[in-house]
Amino acid sequence: MKKKMAGAMAALLMFAACQMPAFAAEVPEGGTDYGSFYDETGVMNTEVLQELGEVTLPSVGGAYGVDLHVDVLDYADGRETMEEMAARIYEEYGYGDPDTLDGLSLTLLLGTDGDSYTLPEGNWVVYGAGEDQELMEAIAASVSEQVAPYLTEGAWDGDLASDQATLEQAVSAVSDAVQQACEDNGIQKAGALLNYVTDVAGLLSDEQLQTLEQKAQEVSEQYNCGVYAVTVDDYQNYDDSGVFDTAVAVYHGCNLGEGSDRDGILLLLSMADRDYAMFVYGPFANEAFNSYGQEQLEQVFLDDFADNDWYNGFTDYIENCASYMQQAVDGTPVSEPGPSLLGSLGLAFGIGCVIALIVCVIMCFMMKSVAPGTSARAYVTPEGLHLTGQRDQFTHRTQTRRKIEKDPPSGGGGTSHSGGGGSGRSGKF
């Protein structure tokens, strides 16, 4: 256990090494970091393609040790074949797994027809390279077969929206085909690079850490949905774009999640400025931890963390994650309650009052035979008017005032996020 935990600490502290392969690649001076999806045209990169490039391709590639890239180009000097151009780009821009240089790239060379782009027949190639060249070429051949239907000249009709959708299907097919081809060729999917509970900030004792790790592992395996917690000194040491983005990068860069959909939830604490972030990924996880559930879940641990009670905070987090997932399994995921009985009665009373008022107004308009008297005498009874008075005299009065205390704030008030293929929240504790 201790050896595994030490390895997990090292993995996170060396975060740059376990991030998405696209960011790990060293770009030659003067070059461009293409990332996992690069669109030279500037018009083909939809939100779906961005998601595929930022999350799906790096996640699949990281899981199997095969760096994946898709490059959409609109210019070539005419002296290279498609394969020669793909090979040059692969080498020039540092593609390939950092350790083995194994990787695949799909390269498309678009043409123009007036104001629209076309895909001429044969203007694409799937290129494989690395230490195991023969294996990468075999996987590239399998991927080519799967993506070919989306890359024929007839599949592109010059309509931008339609062509974008076709390209989305092609890139998605790359992801699916790589997974299948890797499995067929004996490349096993790598496990997560972190434990369920990773305490880089040193908030927990060894005994507490082991107890929490065991709890999280049992819950994760029971529901096939990973429950993770990570503490760091400062999230900006890993990703300075924001604590939520850091949580997303940790989740995907370290290949977290359970099952084929990589379902899971990650809670990240950053101690420098007391920031936290939750990231939820996968269909089952997003059902169990919907937006309302996320808001409720954070209230479970924020009070503990505000008091620096780290062990109980993480314990409450793990136990409530189990409760939420069980409710989802039972078909009743956590949801915002409807109006209470008292609220319903209040609403009914209000409606009744409105109806009564309308009736009274109608009756007043119907009383046309009644006219006001012209003098005060008309309103005095024949027996006369007799007034009696009664007064209670108080010699002393005691008044008690009670100060109404407000609950202290339990945290900084979380903010909802979406991105990285999932959803989550962030704030202060």
Structural class: alpha/beta
- Helix percent band: 40-55%
Order of helices and strands: HHHEHEHEEEEHHEHEHEEHHHHEE
Uncertain stretches: 1-11, 15-34, 374-381, 384-412
Largest sheet: 6 strands, mixed
Kindly report the oligomeric state of this protein: single chain
Number of strands: 12
**Radius of gyration from the alpha-carbon trace, in angstroms:** 33 Å
Strand residue content: 15-25%
For this structure, the CATH topology of the largest domain is: Diaminopimelate Epimerase, Chain A, domain 1
Topology:
Elements: H1 2-13, H2 15-18, H3 21-24, E1 37-39, H4 47-64, E2 67-73, H5 82-92, E3 103-109, E4 111-113, E5 116-118, E6 124-129, H6 133-147, H7 160-184, E7 197-199, H8 206-223, E8 226-232, H9 243-253, E9 264-270, E10 275-281, H10 283-288, H11 291-306, H12 310-329, H13 341-366, E11 415-419, E12 422-428
Parallel strand pairs: 1-2, 2-3, 7-8, 8-9
Antiparallel strand pairs: 3-6, 4-5, 9-10, 10-12, 11-12
Helix pairs in contact: 4-7, 6-7, 8-12, 11-12
Characterization of the model:
The protein is an alpha/beta fold and 429 residues long. It has two domains: 164 residues, Diaminopimelate Epimerase, Chain A, domain 1, CATH 3.10.310; 154 residues, Diaminopimelate Epimerase, Chain A, domain 1. The strands form three sheets. The protein has a six-stranded mixed sheet with strand order 7-8-9-10-12-11, sandwiched between helices. The protein has a four-stranded mixed sheet with strand order 1-2-3-6. A two-stranded antiparallel sheet has the order 4-5.
Describe, in short, the structure shown.
This protein is α/β, with parallel strands linked by helices. It is built from 13 helices and twelve strands. It has two domains: 164 residues, Diaminopimelate Epimerase, Chain A, domain 1; 154 residues, Diaminopimelate Epimerase, Chain A, domain 1, CATH 3.10.310.50.
